[in-house]
Amino acid sequence: MNPRKPYVRPISKTSWFMTQGRYKVYMLHEISSLFVAIYTAILIIGLVRLGEGEAAWQGWLDAVTSPIGVIFHLIAFVFALIHTTSWFKAVPQAMRIQRGEEIVPGKLIVGAHYGVLAAVSLFVLILAGVA
Amino acid sequence: MSERTIELEVLRYRPEQDQEPFFQTYKVPCEEEWVVLDALNYVKEEMDRTLSYRWSCHMFVCGSCGMMIDGEPKLACKAFLKDYPTGKIRVEPLSNFPIERDLVVVLDDFVEKLESVKPYIIPKEERTVEQGEYLQTPAQLKAFKQYTLCINCLCCYAVCPQYGLDESFVGPAALALAHRYNMDSRDLGRAARDDVVAAAEGIWHCSFVGACSQVCPKDVDPAGAIQQAKFAHGIDYLTSFLPGGKR
Questions:
Q1: Cα B217 to Cα B15: distance, rounded to the nearest angstrom
Q2: I want to staple B76 with a disulfide (CB 3.0 to 4.6 A). Which of A58, A108, B37, B127 is the partner?
Q3: Do A20 and B224 touch (CB under 8 A)?
Q4: Model ipTM?
Q5: Which of 3.40.50.720, 1.10.1060.10, 2.60.40.10, 1.20.120.450 is the CATH number of B108-239?
Q6: What is the pLDDT of residue B246?
Q7: A26 part of contact set with chain B, CB < 8 Å
Q8: Which of A8, A9, A83 to mutate to test binding with chain B, by most B CBs within 10 Å of its CB?
Q9: Is A94 part of the contact surface with chain B (CB cutoff 8 Å)?
Q10: Is B97 left (phi over 0), alpha (psi -120 to 50) or beta?
């Protein structure tokens, strides 16, 4: 008789991510994309409304500035921050740049991403007449 | 030398008599500079000779003593008792692997996967001894050296939820080693490895949780290796549409 009897520990397919802090952070980072996607969809709808004339545009503007619209955008903003910071943090792992015998430090790559983000944001704000 | 007693809660499983694992607590008199492996060795030598676990080098080189220590996959030889001030430490076999006995897990699945990625140099050109060695610059070495540091301790598999949920996933260490050889200037085996590496169960199964790289005791960064491999395959796919591209 084979004396081996390996024991397999069960893993919950629906709540595995609650077992470790790092899995929760991962799920938060994944879920953040949902809010970024909804925000983007609302923005695209706004563009379509803009093309449909002044009344349609005003209707969209009223919707996004309504209390529900504002609350959603505040939540989406928080998730957009989570999305941005968590992805930027992960970039040096995926983007490994070698110069000669040295690997470009991750901090430099992350810093460059924040630099570009700041520059693009400033450009958009100037374009919008806010800054 | 100062001494303190720690409570070592060890997950036991003796297949010939146990239906399922259970925790057994040992009160171990420990010295300040001990690691968890020293405490296990004390139990084995002085308290309970039936306890089974793997170890060899005691200097984080061999990769044998990977186990869950307070829920975190670690090398027992690198887990210092002074970092566990409560004096109570829970030791379990590596998660995501079947338990063979006590702290010993079944490694067959990993060994098969490691073999499947052809973790050896498939040379660009066969050279005879007379032709001399394969030359490599320090910069060419740097491109893959980090990924050579893997000691197959499997801490990365123990924390990978993708592997835990679906063991068809080739997994972090095997894919990092495939990347190591793919990045080697002397190697031309990428196409031969792609059957496994670029399959759905290979790099594409990884959703970049990144836990493997967080727990790696040798800082190999398997998650990074997998994302870089994905990037390389993405570039291959896009360039295949260019004139002269291979599809």
A1: 30
A2: B37
A3: no
A4: 0.89
A5: 1.10.1060.10
A6: 65
A7: yes
A8: A9
A9: yes
A10: beta
